[in-house]
Write the structure tokens for this entry.
Amino acid sequence: MSKLHLTLFLFITTILTHHCVKDASAACHVDDESALLSFKSGITADPSGILSSWKKGTDCCSWPGINCRINNRVTELSLVGQPDQPKSFLSGTISPSLAKLRFLSGLYLQDLRNLTGPFPGLLFQLPNIDFVYIENNRLSGRVPENIGDLARLGALSLYGNRFTGTIPSSISKLTQLTQLKLGGNLFTGSFPTVIQNLKNLTLLYLDRNQFSGPLPEIFGSFPELRFLNLSHNKFSGKIPNSISTLYPKLTFLELNHNLFTGKIPDFLGKFKALDTLFLSHNKLSGTVPKTFVNLTKIFNLDLSHNNLTDPFPELKVKGIESLDLSYNNFHLKTIPKWVTTSPIIYSLKLAKCGIKMKLDDWKPSQTHFYDFIDLSENEISGSPIGLLNRTELLVGFWASGNKLKFDLEKLKIVKTLKYLDLSKNLVFGKVPKAVTGVGKLNLSHNHLCGAIPANKFPASVFLGNDCLCGAPLSPCKA
């Protein structure tokens, strides 16, 4: 063999050898492949093919949802469904064979909807597990009493399942947790005071359960807390003073849909970092604290469905995204200036807020971004056409029980509109064909006249008008 040929042979051999070694090292560990294929075999339905490329003999480190970051061992299993795609789900159970994934640090099984079974005991056999997010599935039963044995966890989410019973006291041992999400289940009992040991929490979600009773004065135990959601429970009594200690960092506070009583605490005005505050659907009374003028970063404020009274403070926000003050005892008279000048608002709900104005006189800084406007049960006159004909993304407009007077045929119906309620006003003219594409419609008790275009609505949508005819009402006369 010539020197040239020898050199070429050695070069090609080196390339092939390197390629073979790379391929061999790239293949995932046999235990990892076995564990993942056993998981797949426990899945009884996969209509969108989430696991279709998981096949024996192929490199499992390249499978969708799999990451291998240490010596080609599986370190992350992440399968996430798409809620807006009906077929994007998995039915079946979580195979205990996943315990073979000895290097697994992150388990993410989110929005798969139809995974069933108990709390996965295999977690206790994973020595490197740090992050567990098993969200929006159908796991059920009780959380095991020895949950505290998962002491190295940095995040635990069982959000949106069907777990029952009380929170085990050993959860107090999970002192490394920065996130704890137990919302959207069927947990019962009082607020789990044992979590006051979890001093590193930045996020705590216990919403949408069946907790009850007063909140304990333990919130001073969470100096890093940024997100607190206790909504949709049956918590009662006054909002605890210890929540005031969270003011330096808390940006998100949801206490809505509970049974809280008393006044809104003055200390909430100290929360200058707060951008979301939901206190709706409680039994809060008295006035809104004047200290709310300090909430200059508030973007989402919902105080609706309480017993709050005048006066409402003039806020000094640079812009607000959503505001709901509906169904209290306010007498605002007009839509507040700080709302009118907001450059980014998309949801405005001021139902039954004592507003007495002509809608034509309202000139908001922008209308393009409005998705929802609810002005029901006020004393608003005039026409909404100048306002609504400038919106492009409107999803819902509710104005029942006012004194609006305008020709319905002149109203621009955008394609995004799903909710339109103009009942109990002074609307006249004919029913335009465009409104039949709205998802939920109410035009009852106005002065509309003429033939109703073909539609899918019940008669209640059109009752109480001057001279409407045609299905679902009586046939028109020849």
About this structure: Helices lie at 3-26, 30-41, 337-340, 385-388. Residues 1-25 have pLDDT under 50 and may be disordered. The radius of gyration is 29 Å. The longest helix spans residues 3-26.
